Amino acid sequence: MSKIESALDKTVAKLPLVKNWVKARLCKVWQKILPYLCKLKTLDYAKAKAFALKYKWRILAVLLVLYAGSKAYEYFFPANNKAGGAQTITSVVVEKKDIPLIIEATGTIVSSNIVDIRPMVTNTVAKIHIKDGEEVKEGQLLFTLDNRNDTANYEKLKALADDAQKQYLRAKELVDKNFISKAGLETSLANAKSAQAAARAAEVQLSFDSIRSPISGRAGIINVFPGTLVQASNTVISATNAASTSTTSAMVTITQLNPINVQFVVPEKDIPLLLEGKQADIPLNVKVAVGGNEKNVYEGQVIVIDNQVDPTIAAVRVRAQIPNEKMSLLPGQFARVTLNANTLKDAIAVPSEAIVISPIGRLVYIVDKDGKVAAKPVKVVYEYQGSSVVTGIQAGDRVVVEGKQNLRPGGKVKESREASPPSTPVTPPAAASTPSPADKK
After folding, report:
1. What pTM does this model have?
2. What is the distance between the alpha carbons of residues 166 and 172, in angstroms, rounded to a whole number?
3. CA separation, residue 276 to residues 189, 340, 341 (Å)
4. Rounded-to-integer distance, Cα 399 and Cα 404, Å
5. What is the pLDDT of residue 77?
6. Is 162 within a domain?
7. Which domain holds residue 419?
8. Which of 24-28, 251-255, 284-288, 310-314 has the lowest mean pLDDT?
């Protein structure tokens, strides 16, 4: 590439000599044809018409050559160069800096823990101990069902268990005195254990009448009332109309809101970038904006990356956890997630508008100390929101941002009087492209 550029520079340097030579030749030709042009005044219309018809194709070819030559002259010698002026441009000086690699995604706020409270037995609700939307603690009593029958059954079986235990102790004393056989003692022991097991089963059945919260969180809308019949299934009788009283919902739903999670998907092309930061034991930080309010941004960290890619959408699910002390986030809300996947060390960033796409690839114009420009091929490693991380140029190079449309290698330029923009940083926050390991090096 350097040989081609040097050859182009030499060719461009010889263009003024070619221009002067062409001018000299045209002047000599003009002096030669001038006498003949003067004779054209003596020609009549009929002879001129006959001459034009006879040599019409040659005349047309000459006109086309002259037109093409004029256009080529304007292309290689723009008006500002012919006038001897420099082209006005706007440039920036690039510097090395650490550039964060950002992945943007959309997701949904989800609870870190959510439980639908449903009955284990068929019974009626005796008492409700919470209110709609109340904050509850783990183990707190929520509902009490009608436990009269279960209490009576437990007391009965508990009495039988106590009696069986006493009979076993008496049988043990009688065996020592050889009044009964050891087989009778074993039978008494079996009866005592069976009675105790039945009593414990009745105690468990009785505990189902007291429904407690398995987690700490916020209660939702309560769907039952005192006296409501609930069944040991997914159906909870709660809603009343003219014909019946039934619904298909939980008695209440307990949702943990602090901390809360956000779930989103990362495209398959960005998975290597995501896993590289995760395997390096670097905490992957996220920023979450909920709804249309971009001012309230919540910060958190990724807690899990799914172990498989969904082939239907070619993406992997990611879940992050964010604090929610003010309880301002609720499950189901739409969220915009910005994930800082990694960082490029000592990278060079330029404005994306400074990059020119040419037939030989992407390039930028560099201004040297003499105010002349040179084309430098570059490779874009990462691009985000108008800024591009490139390789092929060095820190301290002055890159043309505006006014590059008519630039030619070796042309003179001058800086615009307007304040030039500072070297462009890449600010957080889905990466437009994922850098390869070779590009990072």
Report:
1. 0.58
2. 10
3. 64, 12, 8
4. 10
5. 65
6. yes
7. 87-100+344-435
8. 24-28
